[in-house]
Amino acid sequence: MRYLTAGESHGKQLTTIVEGVPALMPLTSDEINESLLRRQKGHGRGKRMQIEKDLVDIAGGVRHGYTLGSPIALVVKNDDFKHWVDIMGEDPIDDDKKIRRVVSRPRPGHADLNGAMKYGHRDMRNILERSSARETAVRVAAGAVAKTMLKQLGINVVGYVNEIAGIKAEEYPDLSFDQKVTISEDSPVRCLDPEASQKMMDAIDQAKKDGDSIGGVCEVIVEGMPAGIGSYVHFDRKLDARIAFAVQSINAFKGVEFGIGFEAARRNGSEVHDEIIWSEETGYQRRTNNLGGFEGGMTTGMPIVVKGVMKPIPTLYKPLQSVDIETKEPFTASIERSDSCAVPAAAVVMEHVVAFEVAKAILEQFPHDQFPKLKKAIDEYREEIRCF
Amino acid sequence: MRYLTAGESHGKQLTTIVEGVPALMPLTSDEINESLLRRQKGHGRGKRMQIEKDLVDIAGGVRHGYTLGSPIALVVKNDDFKHWVDIMGEDPIDDDKKIRRVVSRPRPGHADLNGAMKYGHRDMRNILERSSARETAVRVAAGAVAKTMLKQLGINVVGYVNEIAGIKAEEYPDLSFDQKVTISEDSPVRCLDPEASQKMMDAIDQAKKDGDSIGGVCEVIVEGMPAGIGSYVHFDRKLDARIAFAVQSINAFKGVEFGIGFEAARRNGSEVHDEIIWSEETGYQRRTNNLGGFEGGMTTGMPIVVKGVMKPIPTLYKPLQSVDIETKEPFTASIERSDSCAVPAAAVVMEHVVAFEVAKAILEQFPHDQFPKLKKAIDEYREEIRCF
Amino acid sequence: MRYLTAGESHGKQLTTIVEGVPALMPLTSDEINESLLRRQKGHGRGKRMQIEKDLVDIAGGVRHGYTLGSPIALVVKNDDFKHWVDIMGEDPIDDDKKIRRVVSRPRPGHADLNGAMKYGHRDMRNILERSSARETAVRVAAGAVAKTMLKQLGINVVGYVNEIAGIKAEEYPDLSFDQKVTISEDSPVRCLDPEASQKMMDAIDQAKKDGDSIGGVCEVIVEGMPAGIGSYVHFDRKLDARIAFAVQSINAFKGVEFGIGFEAARRNGSEVHDEIIWSEETGYQRRTNNLGGFEGGMTTGMPIVVKGVMKPIPTLYKPLQSVDIETKEPFTASIERSDSCAVPAAAVVMEHVVAFEVAKAILEQFPHDQFPKLKKAIDEYREEIRCF
Amino acid sequence: MRYLTAGESHGKQLTTIVEGVPALMPLTSDEINESLLRRQKGHGRGKRMQIEKDLVDIAGGVRHGYTLGSPIALVVKNDDFKHWVDIMGEDPIDDDKKIRRVVSRPRPGHADLNGAMKYGHRDMRNILERSSARETAVRVAAGAVAKTMLKQLGINVVGYVNEIAGIKAEEYPDLSFDQKVTISEDSPVRCLDPEASQKMMDAIDQAKKDGDSIGGVCEVIVEGMPAGIGSYVHFDRKLDARIAFAVQSINAFKGVEFGIGFEAARRNGSEVHDEIIWSEETGYQRRTNNLGGFEGGMTTGMPIVVKGVMKPIPTLYKPLQSVDIETKEPFTASIERSDSCAVPAAAVVMEHVVAFEVAKAILEQFPHDQFPKLKKAIDEYREEIRCF
């Protein structure tokens, strides 16, 4: 399974093609739209989220509610494009018109300057329109296909927020997976801890007032994974490495960790590794899940637990110093319409890119032409390793 | 540039083929052997490191000290194989001989159990021989080719240790790159902070005494990178994501972060983003490097700063509980010859896998058939972005 | 440069995303539409070609007539979809409605039966909608981007028809490239030989009358290629092999050959190899071009000459025997609306898939972020090898 | 499944790493050596084939006669290297020593000149050592792993010679697969037709006497393939296209065709397509196999039949004109030790590269971690499509 995406932030539409999805899998736009909607929610989102409601158009690969096995094309239109035709249209225009909305002032923390130097653009709109996190809408759409598939295989994925601006959620180890889904969905900041939720909202409001922005830590859990997905035999087949790739590739993410993550540097080995137990009924299990569901690049059968850190979004009202690339004069960074905190949305994005990698690894390992056979194969495998 | 590796820990040899190296690049086994040697050093390494000194044999792709443009084959023999022929030989043997050294007891924290279930091996030696960190020797060899290339392009890479068992090194922001190389090389734990070095050694000795193991945090710095390497245009072309992949794929690594990394969740945006300044002489620069040299998946021109966390190696003398897969009886985990702390070696491995990804990204961006032309193209690009 | 396509024959639209196109390259829908139009022409096309005129919508990656460096999304709507919503719509429908237009009769020569067995579809419409040559419309669109790029680099590509139903065109070695373009464009069967053109049209008319279909041989020429594109260093980097792949992947193609191709089995080596000559003015040249522009998987600087054979399209009015998969009763194959000869269109498709591979190889070899720099680099390379 | 190769013709060794082979598959060096031996045979081979007998060393991935699931490293030593250390050694040498055996005279038909221009080598030995067909030895070794796997899955592959220097073998449609194996093996030119065999040998002898070389056509048959391997859903998943790629990538090949191939341009559709019949016992079958076992890029269940054409090897005793790249003086091409006809060997190479692609496609489609499970899955699939 693989996908490509296209589309600019204020362009006509976002597009993705997802190739390699099994045939005969139930899939409707409802599941995808639900994911798109979840991405748009969250305390602290800017106005655009309220203006435009993302809806997917399935433009290929699905017929009568089932996948065909053909590539799936997903389109998310930008409703607002009508106001941007002159600025973002694909047709050649007169040079004098081009001047409008030229961006010559790179914003620190964005791709603007480095992208402009790389691609030779003097109008950095050519960069920021694509480097914008708007593109994550179709990454979510692609991931929603994966999530729908996983769900039907008994594998569930959820993303929520652990920390915003230094406010950390309490750990609630006793929450069931479903509870995590429900509680995070109900929280305006996708946080499992009600008290922290409130503090996070306050911090977001304060940041907005200050013209500043704040980041945070998202966590994604994948429950129901059988052991042995991914592989140790070659470094580029390790599933945790692929997930790290996917998470780090999300706009504004600066790090990723599995299980106890960086805390592993502070504990003794005897306090880190997850002891193996066995019972006739369940097969092999682990007493703990410090390693976040991975050993040797493969799943252990315990839930995958992965965290990613998002930096504060760099589009600030509070000015940062930069330099106009035409005049070379210093200025304080230009302002695009923006959110002050996008961490709750990022948790949804992260959930979906993780789901994609997990689904991809499953498809590589099991027969994947026909969805019902895939489902059967995984069930058999589950039984097989239970009796191993 | 791409590579495959093969070889088991106690097999005949480790092999890698590196395809896509430019022609006419000076390369000798000396550079590679130096990297291999550095990987074998470090306070707390087990006996095997003293027994076997890894030496590379360049078995293709290099002639008279220069690369041909052909794939480069690198071989590291396992000197000890002569004692392992019966156990690890490729030829069929009688079933009664096979019993010897069968491993039926999976070690927590290793690939043993999950790998066995995945691949259907009842003798987990079939897993552990490949999942062993021994394989990192040829990843270092492949990375040494990349490092040699980068060095000749004015790009330098070094890895060192920031933290072991909770003991953190002081930051020495004023050290030059060369000083970092020299000081870390002189430290038995590859640490820039002499005081912390000593404490780390003590902790290692104590862990050994306790039959326990300890992990730590490695940091790799890439200096001399021009801005604009990598790309934001498609998520799988982001260089930081590729580096995250490479680091996470190192045996026993559990996380990776760039610049201030997870700390970004605790600061305001105005304290995170690296302001842009400009002078005629140097072109664009940043006041700070909180983002670790990356914006939008591209380099900013500041040094790449990436950290990776290594868990304590799971081969313990202190027992962890596990289950024999034949008898289903609980036992306390079996002991293979082992190090108590491999973090200093891991820093060298990390240095080399990062170097590989960086070199690969450079080759994708610049003309790469002939090394002298590559060098010229990068120099021109540097000048171009200085004057952008 | 890479691309994915999606879309079914009677679905909403065809979509392609082309990733890896340099920034700052002039590109408008005109060039792409011209290619789409050429694909739809040709004596012997069925009615659909007259009903629907393919037009591209550039839905990302291009702004104001220039590429951004971002992925390019291209959409070709199926105007006729409004009549097919019930049959091909993506939304779930009641089971009783599904029965309409179910295809249970596999057509020999099509993907129907094998595809159905592979993907488990009992309604073979689920296969034929995607396996249809309709999809080549977006392969042409993607190829048109490549062709536009090549043209601006001084590299021109044209496809025409050499043979239909055993009628072979005379060779006209003295025609210039431009003459080949013009003459083939004016011929209703895209043939350079006027006399053969007329015979081919007669054969097509006769086949239509007989309810039969006929195939033919297409030839594509790439002129202006510098020597040394592609590589011998690893088998999967040979450009002729990649072109063979692309040509063989066109619907209904059964073979591909370069230069004298299979004739090479009948000549002595002294009559096959292209002798090397040199002059100060032109550098190295060849006396002949028997090898079709390739030695060692690399271009020789002579035009690339590649032929592909297309089988007669398998959708016949003249019945072929097959078996209904539900009743297991023999029948004579069902009839879908069809052309009796699609070779002229296939020549256009082949032209575009070859263009894509050639452009891709060029981008791999030269700096490709900025189009003007790419152009400069190729010009410099041309001069360099002239003086080699 | 994927592989990389390394090694120069007179270098130390040839190496390949094959990644992605299932675990628990019986594999010994015997099968690989048999393939290597077959590649070295054939009337008309030069002296080198008699001097050096290729033997494989399995240097990883196999233990006690079974695959581990780890990457497999295969090494074929060049026995003669000891005489070439000065010329081909990897260590730097004094410039005055380098002069020896410098090749400044490009041979028409070889990669020499184009490769030199591309990579900037003035000593074309740097090209010819890698572009030599010597490399096919390890491609055969990698293919032998695939062939061994296929055989155990009930899929057999054989290559033989259909034509040399215009002498065509009679078709023997009644020969069983095993007979084809035996007869071709017994023929010094790997030809099924004894009369043609003799004429081919005479032609080879005559060519040798004349200092000329001759080419031919090889055919590979894959018997036992279930229907539905490969896919039509995306152009790059078509198995025939991948095979075309692999065949065209063999040194000196100039074309490839499936089934009746180019003859399809001369027949009516009603004479080309393979009618579908069905019986309870066998399921679906075809009356004919004109399409060579492929429809829509997928197998039909009939044998795969693919032909490739090899040009006469360009290393001639009979001179061709060329130009010295240092003096720019014309000369008649230099002579390296050579065969006058390599078509019989090429048939073995082609057999193995086809086997690799077929095995790869099978592994993509079926569960491939454990060989016994793969075998079971294919058997089940065979039954399933029989009852479809």
TrEMBL record, chains A, B, C, D:
Q: What is its EC number?
A: 4.2.3.5
User: By its UniProt entry, which Gene3D superfamilies does this protein fall under?
Assistant: Chorismate synthase AroC
Q: How is the cofactor bound?
A: Reduced FMN (FMNH(2)).
Record InterPro entries: Chorismate_synth, Chorismate_synth_AroC_sf, Chorismate_synthase_CS
Q: Which Pfam families match?
A: Chorismate_synt
Question: Which reaction does this chain catalyze?
Answer: 5-O-(1-carboxyvinyl)-3-phosphoshikimate = chorismate + phosphate
Which amino acids does the record list as binding FMN?
Answer: 130-132, 251-252, 296, 311-315, 337
The first-level EC class reads lyase
The UniProt family comment states: Belongs to the chorismate synthase family.
Q: What is this protein called?
A: Chorismate synthase
Q: Which organism is it from?
A: Amphibacillus indicireducens
| Chain's gene name | aroC
